[in-house]
Amino acid sequence: MSPFPYRLVATDLDGTLLRSDESVSGRTRDALAAVTAAGAAHIVVTGRAVPWTRHILDDLGYEGIAVCGQGAQVYHAGEHRLLTSLTLDRQLAGLALSKIEAEVGPLALAASRDGLDGEVLMGPGYRAQEGPLPYVPYEDPAELWSAPLTKLYIQHPTLTDDELTGAARETVGGLVDVVMAGPGIVEILPLGLSKATGLSLAARRLGVKAAETIAFGDMPNDIPMFGWAAHGVAMGNAHEELRAVADEVTASNEEDGIAVVLERLLSA
User: Would the pTM count as exceeding 0.90?
Assistant: First the structure.
């Protein structure tokens, strides 16, 4: 077996490492195991906060560091503890939200609370994603702001995700960051926060450099991670914005796209 050319393999979860049923295929598990046996580290870099990520990492037997919450949380899976956590300034977020609504009209809201067991709150009209991820409905808007948050989620009744993201960025781009992380998932984050910032912190702890990293993703929120890593691989199902900046495009998450690339690199 030839030496693996990277010391760090960074993978997004939804639409990338995970199939639509939230499982990881045997082929992809084997490819990642072969990569780690060859001396590289695998790190999960996801928009999900820790409470929505932990069960997946446990199922994988993943005991290393993971980057969660779009870079806000660096989590040690083996020790089940947060190493770093960045919260959203709630006053600034409220101001940003009012400016966006003044531009596009009322929004449906959800929010992710900070911490290992931070709840996801969902307000009236917010369309929850199908699946087993838990959330807590709320009616009183004051409840949304009553505890530290990692992010806000916004939805619009008629605008597409791309249209809402573009309008929000244009309106509040100097106050907060706005990213589109998946279908129906437009997020308000602390200004300057991205998967790249979280990944760079985690890589420093691992003693790995950007030039030694290959990254896999599928959505526009993976663009900063691709900009940081030496090589960015978009999944076959990836959003066109990410495909445009990727170094290569592999098969989809349903077709073991990660394994396709890793197997090729292992056998090169």
Answer: yes
